[in-house]
Amino acid sequence: PQIICSAVTDMRQVLESILSYAKQNYYNRLVISSYDNWQNLIEAIPESYLNQREDYVFDLTLPNPHLIHSSRFKKNYKKSLLTHPQVVENSTSEGISNLLHLLKTTHHIRLSKYSDYDVFYLPHTNEHQLQKLIDNKMGRVYEIRVENQVHGIALNLEANHSVFALFMAYDEFAYKNGLAAYFFYQLIDRYKNEGFTRFNLGGIPKGKENSGIKVFKESIGAQSIRLNGLTTNFLLYPQKILNPILHLVRMMKKLHN
């Protein structure tokens, strides 16, 4: 669910209430992730610190939604047409099962070339939670198929005329035949026609091996947008004793940057 506030003061009141709840219920810290968070948190609450990250966002309100700049993208799109792909929605338990399978497949492919990473990059993510997203109509699963075989998949969150790409995965066939280009093209077209205004493709994981992801998102026409998250120091003792050290670490990072 998204918190909608009319002004910074409204957001401050909301966050102060959440902070009060956290203290009363003995939560050790308050952490609000920056994933697709468009709220103004700059002057949120005392003793809080911003966590900034860049997301790549596609503006679906533009007159021409297909801002393809990359010759590589065009080449992959044309290559994908030779396989006669189809993009279908499969927001069912079967779709979640296919997603989990392809997430493992993608992990295996990338692990053979690059460093390890956590498939479920968000805390507390599991099959049950993903199924709840589908059951509650907060997420939808899309598949790209060739001859009815699933080669790529996406689980997107959709709310308030906005889309956030939560998980995407592909197999070796999809990589070799440029199916990602066709998949994104069709999804953008679908969301444009359904009246969505923004498609957040997510950020870029750290590491040189992920530079290709950045190139791909930029080639579609996605723009880099800096979004803010928020975290507090420790709220409870004895961990609260460590807060001066956390403050010192943040100061050293600022000096280093």
Explain this structure.
- Residues 1-8 have low confidence and may be disordered.
- β5 and β6 (162-170) form a beta hairpin.
- The chain has helices spanning 8-24, 71-81, 93-111, 127-135, 172-176, 179-193, 211-220, 243-256; strands spanning 31-32, 48-59, 86-89, 139-146, 149-159, 162-170, 198-200, 223-232.
- It contains eight helices and eight strands, in the order αββαβααβββααβαβα.
- It is of the alpha+beta class and 257 residues long.
Number of helical segments with 4 or more residues: 8
Uncertain segments of ≥5 residues (pLDDT<50)?
1-8
Biggest sheet: strand arrangement = 1-8-2-7-6-5-4-3
Largest β sheet strand count, sense and barrel closure: 8 strands, mixed
Number of strands: 8
Query: Into which percentage range does the β-strand content fall?
Result: 15-25%
Described by the principal axes of the CA atoms, the overall outline is elongated
Mean pLDDT: 86
Helix/strand order = HEEHEHHEEEHHEHEH
- Distance from N terminus to C terminus (CA atoms, Å) equals 34 Å
- The proportion of residues forming helix, as a percent range, comes to 25-40%
Cα radius of gyration in angstroms: 20 Å
Which structural category do the helix and sheet elements fall into?
Answer: alpha+beta
